[in-house]
Amino acid sequence: MAKAVRYVTKSEPSLATLLPADRVRQESLRLLLQAALYDPLTSRFLLNTGLHEGMRVLDIGSGLGSVSLLVSEIVGPQGEVIAVECSPAMIDFATRRVRNAGRTNIQFVLGEAESLQLDGPFDAVVGRFVLRELDNRAGTLEKLARLLRPGGIVAFQEKVLTVPITAVPPMPAVEKARSWMDQARGRARVELEMGAKLPQIFAAAGLPAPNLRFEAPIGNGNDWVGYDYLVEMLRGMLPAIQLYGIANERELKLDTLAGEMRSEATKTGSVIMLTPCIGAWTTTPAGNRRRRRHS
């Protein structure tokens, strides 16, 4: 397998210099805002799982490389991160992020998690908000676990969308955004409880019962990026919101909604809790023999 390219620039570049100019620009912005909010949770989660220096780690659905960068910091120069992503545009963006971060231990691979062909063994396989995108979650997780050494770590985080976004005291702008998103997800039959289903998926994949961690991003004040994240979430769901007649662009006011939230937050002093996530982690049995899944 090819070695990662050595990079030299140490500073994280601005969004303006990194964001691609094509159709993935909007999704890239949403993912960067998501990382700003969820990376602290993911970093604590990864440390809880037992990741440490020198490990070889497989990151599934790496997107813009945010989780890969967190893992890279933990495993250090002697470790290695193999990041798998199905979008060439995302890999291009992530490669530039890694270059500018000066990381030498991350390598990106174009591919699908369900049909991944890689040489093991790995010490761990990790992923954030990726299992929900798979058709055969347990089957894919079982295949990924086979790439691990005995005692290897399996660690994934997923959201629990049934827990509502909440502002205390209430903020009308946040409540509007939450209502629009909840209605669109309900009409589109989006999986809402993936985080809470992780123990079931692990069991169906023949893995030991996982440890669990529950956390949610919270924030307040004028400078919090959570408002921008909520707006970008709505922007990404706009086709569904319009398709189901939930609201139109004039009602959404996406260009001014974040400012409306900031104004309300300043007046009310509200604390906002965003969608929580559950992290589940376990280790493969000695000998890495998988139990047969239930049919």
Structure description:
- It is a single chain.
- With about 300 residues, the protein is of the alpha/beta class.
- About 40% of the residues lie in helices and about 20% in strands.
- The strands form two sheets. The protein has a seven-stranded mixed beta sheet with strand order 3-2-1-4-5-10-7, covered by helices on one side. The protein has a three-stranded antiparallel beta sheet with strand order 6-9-8, with helices on one face.
- α2 (about 25-50) packs parallel to α3 (about 65-75) and α2 (about 25-50) packs across α8.
- Mean pLDDT is about 90; it is low at about 1-20 and about 290-295.
Described by its quaternary structure, the protein is single chain
**Through-space gap between termini:** 36 Å
CATH topology: Rossmann fold
The CATH superfamily is Vaccinia Virus protein VP39
Count of alpha/pi helices: 11
Helix content: 40-55%
Report the CATH architecture.
3-Layer(aba) Sandwich
- Tell me the Rg in angstroms: 20 Å
What structural class do helix, strand and pairing data support? alpha/beta
- What's the order of the H and E elements? HHEHEHEEHEEHHEEHHHHEE
Strand order of the largest sheet: 3-2-1-4-5-10-7
| Shape estimate | globular
**Biggest beta sheet summary:** 7 strands, mixed
Number of strands: 10
* Portion in strands: 15-25%
> How many domains, as an integer?
1
